[in-house]
Amino acid sequence: MSVVTNTTTIGAIEAPSRRNTELLLLAFAVVIPIFAYANVGLSIHGELPPGMLVYGLGFAVLAGIAHLVVRRFAKYADPLLLPIATLLNGLGVVLIWRLDQSERLRTLAKRSFGVFTESAPRQMMYTGLAIALFSVVLLVLKDHRVLQRFTYISMAGALVLLILPVIPGLGADVFGAKIWISVGGFSIQPGEFAKIVIAIFFAGYLMVKRDALALASRRFMGLYLPRGRDLGPILMIWAMSLLVLVFENDLGTSLLFFGMFVIMLYVATERTSWIVIGLLMSVGGATVVGMTASHVKVRVTAWLDPFACYSTSGACEQVGQSIMSFGSGGVLGTGWGQGNSDLIGFAANSDFIFSTVGEELGLTGVMAFLLLYGLIIERGVRTALAARDPFGKLFAIGLSGAFALQIFVVAGGVMGLIPLTGMTMPFLASGGSSVLANWVLIAILIRISDTARRPAPAPAPSPDSEMTQVVRPS
């Protein structure tokens, strides 16, 4: 006698989505800025801020909407990117509101412009628009590989965005830098969006040309030197970055574009020689422009010795005040609302907002913020490593590299490590263009990570293997 049993095939076990982990982290990312907001109000006015409940509920609703969109349309995305960006954005609004309470800045604004308008409510409005744009990107961009079709269109689009600020009547010269355009009373910084658009071109171009660029003609002093004709792309990007620096007086954007291209070129070809060549070209170009362009020369002078020209140059005074802010903060800081970084002046809530972190939160707060930024960069690099397609790998590493370079040039500038670039600290500084562009960057990284972490579909079962008869002797 025998026993016949039926066994069926088991499909692939579904990978965890980690969305509940993201929700828990988002709760902390919302609560921490609310406590910071309350701390500032108690420190400055001796009472809780009157709009604390509205701010807290509004920020929680925005974070909840972003989470629901990710849960529905990017189920397997990295669970850390959204909470960290939310935390940084929330703390940025608190820092801006803290500076809005400064009597010095209110008096300066009334003296210079005749009226003072608080920046924190406007920053919350930009945050809401940024979350909406973040949601639209995840809704529309179902697969990041679609962007590869627009490789050369994106190059043209990036060039248009870079040219707009120098067009007479459209571009605006703000304190020597021509990086803004004014449309209908609103100011937009196209360079913030150009870094994303040009990353599409770099990723698509290098994916196709990486084999040719990896070829070496000769070895010199331990380096593989590329062929002459292969130097064309890097020379073109180098020239474009110099043109941005010359015509727009924008050191930060030129360093960002050229640095991002060199990073992506190194990742695509694995040739150290490209890094060396890129560094030499960037140093050479920056030196020449720094000696000839007056706006850049002023910033280099302020970097070399800000206290030598402290009383004669506004740039030197700003850098000097910033360095003193970091120095007076010490290890633990003076406390929320107890610093004097508002002495920096009009740029205290934009270019120099990190100085407020250094003074009121001290070295501990500075390291905490840099750690949060570092985690975003690390998750972006991890996403690039996990991506299954070469375009996605290069695109993710390009966006992460651009984000890292922006953190370095801004933090280094306000700390006196490098010349001031005029760029804004992502998510912290006041300004709509920066908030919108960086939330789009986070959305694209989330889309790439969702594709990379999504489990491969199980193969279709064969009808013959659905049921197997196993005969066992009784």
UniProtKB/TrEMBL annotation:
The chain crosses the membrane at residues 23-40, 52-69, 81-99, 123-141, 153-172, 192-208, 228-245, 251-268, 275-296, 352-373, 394-418, 424-446. It is found in: Membrane. GO terms for biological process: cell division; regulation of cell shape. GO terms for molecular function: lipid-linked peptidoglycan transporter activity. Residues 453-474 are annotated as: Disordered. It holds the Pfam family FTSW_RODA_SPOVE. One of its GO terms (cellular component) is cell division site. Keywords: Cell cycle, Cell division, Cell shape, Membrane, Transmembrane, Transmembrane helix. InterPro entries: FtsW/RodA. This is Cell division protein FtsW. Its main location: membrane. The keyword NADP does not apply. It comes from the Bacteria. It comes from Streptomyces katrae. Coiled coil: none annotated. It is a multi-pass membrane protein.
